[in-house]
Amino acid sequence: MTRKSTIFALVAPAMLVITATSTYPLLFALTSSFRRWQLSKSPTPGKFIGFDNYARAFGDRFFVNSIQVTAVFTIISVGLTILIGLGMALVLQKPGRLNGFIRTLLIFPFAVSPALKGYTFRFMLNPEYGIIDQMIDAIFPASADLVWLANEFWALFWLSVTETYGWAPLMALMFIGALNAIPTDIFEAAKVEGSTNWQLFRHITLPLLSPVIIIATLLKTIFSLKMFDQVVTMTGGGPGRATQTLNHYVYHTAFVTLDMGYASALSYILIIVISILSYFYIRALYGKGGI
Amino acid sequence: MLTRKKITEIGNVLTGSIIILFLAFPIFWIGLTAFKPERYVFSTKFSFAPTLDSFRAILQAPLSFGPLTLNSLIISASTVIIALPLAVMAAYAFSRYRFRGQQALLIWVLITQFLPPVVVVLPFFALFRQLQLVDTKIGLIWINLSIVLPYSIWMIKGFVDALPTEIEQASLIDGCNEFQTLRYITLPLLAPSIITAGVFSFIMTWNEFLFALILTRQEARTLTIGLLSTHTATGIRWDWMSATGLIVMIPVFILSLTIRKHFIQGMTMGAVK
C-alpha cells in the first residue's frame, strides 16, 4: 500500500460520517436559509428568495430580544464561571486531605445532565417549598415575596447559575493544573522582597495564568452560546420571552411555527458568531502557526 | 489564644465547606427528594422515613421508564462503538502523517464540534421525516455521531501526539505494515486513552436532550426526555423527577470517577495539558 492510500483509508471513513452528520446539515441549512419553507405546507424547501429571511430578522423584535437575552446570559454565565472557577482554584490548589477530596468532587456537577440541572434549580427555587428560596429568604427577608423565575432579571440570572454550577468546577480543575505548573521559587523570591499576597496574585499568578484564562473564557463563551436544555426544563423561555436565547428562538421558529427557512437563516447568524469565536479559540490554543 | 496558624486552618475548613456545599448540595437534594414520601416533597424537611415509592411510580405504567433507560443505554453504547474505531484511525493519521489538506480537515472537525445542536437537528428533522427515521434509535445514533465523532477524533489525536514514535518505527523496520503496527503496537498503548474518550462520549450521549426532544415521540424516547413526563395536571411531581434524575446521574458519576484524571483533557479535547 502506498503512503497516500494508507492515509486515505484511515481518514476517509471518519470524514464520510462527519459529512453525513455535520457537513450535510450545515450546507442544507445554508441553502434553506435563502428559501421560503413553511414545513406545515411542504416537506421540502420552496422558492428561492435571496436574503429575505436574513433581512426579516433585523425587523423582528423577538429576534432582537433573543440576541439581547443571549448576550446578557453569556456575559453573566461566563463572568461567574471564570470568577468562581478561579476563586475555587486558588483555594483548592494548596495540598491537604480536605482539598484533595474536594478536587475529586469538582468533576460531579459537570457530569449532571444539563436538562436535569434545569429541573433541579427550578425545584430548589420554587417560592413555596424551594430550598434555595427558603435559605435566601432566611438571610434576606426582603426577598420573601420574590418569585425568582417569574422575575425577568432573576430568571435569566438563575439560568446563568445553572450553567455556572457545571462549568465553574471544571474551569477550577483547569486553573489548578495551570497554577501547579508555576514554579514556586518565583513566589519565594518575591516574598523575600517583601511582596504582599495581593501583589503576588496581581503581578505573578494572574499574568502567568492569563493564557489559560483567555482559553477558558473563549471556550465557555462558545458553550454559553450553545446552551439550550435548561431553557426548556427551567424557564421555557419565560417569563414572557425574558429568557428566550437565540438557540431557543431558532428552536421555536423551526418546531413550533414550523418556518424552516427563517429558522435556518437565524441559525446561520448564530453559526457566524460561533465560527468567529472558534477562530480565536484555535488561535489562542495553537498560535498563528496553526495546528 | 488562637495562633495565626489555627486561624488560617479554620479559614481553610470554612471555605472548603462552602465549596462542598456549592458542589454537592443540588445533587444531595435530588438524591434526598427521590426517597421522600409524597407528603414531604413539598416541605424542606431533612428527616423522614425513606421510601422507594417514587422509583416504583416511574418504573410502572403509565410512566414506564424502564424501556426509556434501555433506549438511552442502547443509543449511547451504539454511538460510542461506531465512533471510536473511526476516531482512532483518523486521529492516528492526523497525528502521525503530514498530508495536503490536513490542517483544513482538522479545523473543519473542530468547527463541527462547536456547531450548535439546534443547527444540526433542523435539516435532520426534515430528512428523517422523509426517511421515516423519526422516533427510531437508528436516527438518534446517527445524529449523536455529529457531536461524538469530531470530539473523539480531537481527544484521541491529543493522546497519540503524546505517544513516542520510536516503538512504531521499530515495528515498521521489523516488517510490519502500517495497519499491523496500528493494530498490535499503537492500539494496546492507546487503550486507556480510548477508554477515556469512550466514557466521555457515552456521558455526552447519555445526557443528550435536544436531539431526543425533537426526534422522538414514543418508541425511541430516552431517559432525559422522560423527565418531561413527570409533569402532571397539578404540576411537576418533584419526587418522580428526582428519582428519574438519580437514575440519570448515578451511571455518569461512576463513569466520571473512573476517568477523573483525564477530565480536563477530555473537556478541552486534549488541548490544555
Shape type of chain A? globular
Q: How many beta-strand runs of chain A?
A: 0
The shape of chain B is: globular
| Share of helical residues of chain A | over 70%
Largest sheet of chain B: 2 strands, antiparallel
Instruction: Please report which band the strand proportion of chain B falls in: under 5%, 5-15%, 15-25%, 25-35%, 35-45% or over 45%.
Output: under 5%
Q: Mean of residue pLDDT of chain B?
A: 87
Number of helices of chain A: 13
> What is the count of DSSP helices of chain B, taking H or I runs of 4+ residues?
13
Structural class of chain B: mainly alpha
List the helices and strands and how they pair.
The complex is a heterodimer of chains A (291) and B (273).
Chain A: H1 3-32, H2 52-58, H3 61-92, H4 97-105, H5 107-111, H6 114-124, H7 131-139, H8 152-180, H9 184-192, H10 197-226, H11 229-235, H12 246-255, H13 260-286
Helix pairs in contact in A: 2-13, 3-8, 3-10, 3-12, 6-8, 6-11, 8-10, 8-11, 10-13, 12-13
Chain B: H1 4-34, H2 38-41, H3 53-59, H4 65-96, H5 102-114, H6 117-131, H7 137-161, H8 166-173, H9 178-207, H10 210-215, H11 223-226, E1 231-232, E2 235-236, H12 238-258, H13 263-267
Antiparallel strand pairs in B: 1-2
Report on the architecture of this protein.
- The complex is a heterodimer of chains A (291) and B (273).
- Chain A is mostly helical and 291 residues long.
- Chain A is built from 13 helices and no strands.
- Chain A has a domain of 188 residues: MetI-like (MetI-like fold).
- Helix content of chain A is 74%, strand content 0%.
- In chain A, helix 6 crosses helix 8.
- The longest helix of chain A has 32 residues.
- Chain B has 273 residues and is mostly helical.
- In chain B, helix 4 runs antiparallel to helix 9, helix 5 packs across helix 7 and helix 6 crosses helix 7.
- The longest helix of chain B is centred in the N-terminal third of the chain and has 32 residues.
- The chains are: A mainly alpha (291), B mainly alpha (273).
- At the A-B interface, helix 1, helix 3, helix 4, helix 5 and helix 6 of A face helix 1, helix 4, helix 5, helix 6 and helix 7 of B.
